[in-house]
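Sanity check record (used in CI):
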Amino acid sequence: MTALQRKLAEARAEGRAALVGYYPAGLPDVDSSVRVIEAMVAGGCDVIEVGLPYSDPTMDGPVIQQASDAALAAGTTPKDVLAVVRATAETGAAALVMSYWNPIEQYGVDAFAADMAAAGGAGVITPDLIPEEAGPWIRASDASGLDRIFLVAPSSTDQRLKLTCDASRGFVYAASLMGVTGTRDKVAATARKLVQRVRGATRDSGLPVCVGLGISNGAQAAEVASYADGVIVGSGFCRRVLDAPDLDTACAQVRDFAAELAEGVRSAAR
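Expected output for Tryptophan synthase alpha chain:
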């Protein structure tokens, strides 16, 4: 089992969903981003998605775009991202990378998979890569023992759900709404129905389903945790760092936010 698979299995054994936090490497700089991630884990995150900053993040809303732009302006490179992955794995959390496909292709698909595994990474989320075009990545991730996480959306047909779930390993990422990332006042009504549809596509494999896009507080985390295997939160963490007057304040606020979310996933009736 990968570190990701172990974390999801441990959460399931405890009768709860896993808490998955996203944070871009290099915000506001590489060393500081490690401190923020350590605070996320201290607050209760089981899994960390280390974002690889990208100049054209088509899935991401204004908060994560601002965070990525700041990380790029600070000079963050893919090698820096892998250093953050290594530091994240050392916290005991499962370390993933979330990256658009172009940076991985430019790095070299086989080289990225090998370097990710060497850094202690468990898997990679590729939001703009579809299984039909993922042959090189499937081969590279198999060779390096990495989980590969593809996305499904409310618009996905049953055929596409099955295709995507069959190609995924670790978990399948259920984007709860048709839109970009960002905190919202309530969880999209489409989220529960999408998870139910994914359950049908994963009946044989039992592949976990994690839900992201729009979760902004502990009550929403509890709601999603009542029917999903994992709750994914990103913009809320980034916003707290972007708004904080200094790094110590940012880390304290991030830790408190993670603790609120962790309490939510643990309080959900399952």
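The chain has a mean pLDDT of 93. If this sentence no longer matches the regenerated tokens, the check is flagged for review.
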